[in-house]
Design goal:
Strand 14 and strand 15 form a beta hairpin. The N and C termini lie far apart (44 Å). It contains five helices and 17 strands. The chain folds into two domains: 115 residues, Elongation Factor Tu (Ef-tu), domain 3 (Beta Barrel), CATH 2.40.30.130; 163 residues, Threonyl-trna Synthetase, Chain A, domain 2 (Threonyl-tRNA Synthetase, Chain A, domain 2, 2-Layer Sandwich), CATH 3.30.980.10. 20% of the residues lie in helices and 38% in strands. An eight-stranded antiparallel beta sheet has the order 6-5-10-2-3-9-7-8. Strands 11-12-17-16 form a four-stranded antiparallel beta sheet. It has a three-stranded antiparallel beta sheet with strand order 13-14-15, with no helix packed on it. With 288 residues, the protein is of the alpha+beta class. Keywords: Metal-binding, Zinc. It comes from Microbacterium foliorum. One of its GO terms (molecular function) is aminoacyl-tRNA deacylase activity. This is Metal-dependent hydrolase. InterPro entries: Alanyl-tRNA_Editing_Enzymes (IPR051335), Thr/Ala-tRNA-synth_IIc_edit (IPR018163).
């Protein structure tokens, strides 16, 4: 296998036909690799957005895909899946693939070279796309809401504001119509010039400012899209959104909505129960 998997999810694809290129069986079950797929896989280095679930169909047989994952094969022929991949995505000497783990028994007709139909669970994908877009918007609104608390320049975010997100975020978990982000407010952030004491004392005001900003952005109905640099899973992709405050561009491997008109609202709740850890919970209400 010499070429990386071609993917259609950046353009919103949820179905397609393809050819089976590899079938791997192990302790985790059977994993199918095809030459082109609409399935978005969970990233093994930054697993913020879950992988797509769905179905593979061939000769009338339907088999479930539990959650698509990153896979890779080295130039020496070593196949690795998900968290077992020993290098970062895009490392030289590896071909990058999308793995489709199967549930239940594998049909006898599912062999290398077979033509299959792939179908993603579209409602789940849509929910995850809303969750991911809401997550990015919330982080940009958070950066604006705490911009006055920096005594040093931490670098700029996609809208040119002080980049609290990049400096403090330690984890991000996206789910359907929402996300949970954790930010470390320790000594390193204070040394970088962030006023954590004032932030803690004004937490409610900061939350209100974020939600007001998000309401303005949602009301704008701004266009949103994923722009890939190439057709394969390993090619860089970025999220673009034409906000009233300017054009936002963030490197991102996930999926997103096409317009902010797909939301009724986006809101956040800030939790500082642990003074060293800010937890931001983002909730999106989809338009019917």
């Amino acid at each position: 296998m010499s070429s990386s998997t071609v993917v259609s999810f950046p353009a919103g694809g949820v179905s397609g036909s393809s050819t089976v290129r590899r079938i791997e069986s192990g302790e985790a079950g059977t994993v199918v690799v095809v030459d082109a797929t609409p399935f978005h896989p969970v990233d093994h280095t930054w697993p913020d957005q879950p992988g797509d679930s769905g179905e593979i169909v061939l000769d009338g047989a339907v088999v479930r895909v539990s959650e698509a994952v990153m896979a890779a094969i080295s130039d020496e022929g070593e196949f690795a899946l998900g968290a077992d991949i020993p290098v970062k995505r895009g490392a030289e000497g590896w071909t990058w693939l999308v793995g489709h783990p199967l549930e239940g028994e594998t049909p006898s007709s599912l062999v290398e070279g077979a033509r299959v139909e792939l179908s993603v669970d579209a409602p789940r994908r849509a929910g995850l796309s809303r969750g991911h877009t809401a997550c990015h918007l919330a982080s940009l609104a958070l950066d604006i809401a705490v911009a006055d608390l920096w005594r040093k320049d931490p670098g700029a975010d996609a809208l040119g504001n002080p980049n609290f997100e990049a400096r403090a975020n330690q984890s991000s978990r996206i789910h359907e119509d929402g996300a949970v982000d954790e930010y470390r407010l320790g000594k390193s952030l204070r040394r970088a010039g962030f006023d954590t004491e004032t932030f803690a004392a004004t937490l409610e005001d900061r939350e209100a400012a974020i939600n007001a900003q998000l309401a303005t952005w949602v009301a704008s109905g701004a266009m949103s899209r994923v722009v890939p640099e190439g057709p394969t899973i390993v090619d860089r992709r970025s999220w673009h959104c034409e906000l009233p405050d300017g054009h936002a561009e963030i490197l991102c491997g996930g999926t997103h909505v096409e317009s902010l008109s797909e939301f009724v609202s986006i809101s956040v709740a800030l939790d500082l129960t642990d003074p060293q850890l800010l937890v931001m919970t983002t909730k999106a209400v989809p338009a019917v």
